[in-house]
Amino acid sequence: MLGEKHDLIHEFPEFEAKIEDMRASNEPFAALMDQYDGIDARVRKLEELGTPVADETIEDLKKERLKMKDQLYAMLNA
Questions:
Q1: Which end of the chain lies in a sparser environment, N or C, as judged by fewer CB atoms within 10 Å?
Q2: Domain limits of the chain?
Q3: Any residues with CB less than 8 A from the CB of 45 and at least 6 apart, and which?
Q4: Where does the pLDDT of residue 2 fall: very low under 50, low under 70, confident under 90, or very high at 90 and above?
Q5: Helix count (H) and strand count (E) of the chain?
């Protein structure tokens, strides 16, 4: 779905308190979240504005976002 939210709290509402705590106290987690949020914002912007861009570009960004989400989820479950 175009412009769909993929922020971590939206994706994992059951971890909301832990996400906020880790973002404030765990530098590697916070840095990865910042990267994740940046890629998510970029994907949403490209989709919402209908900016002409190669399909591979958006797909590569989505794959990178998914990889980061998996890493963040693993950190939340550690």
A1: N
A2: 8-77
A3: 51
A4: low
A5: 4, 0
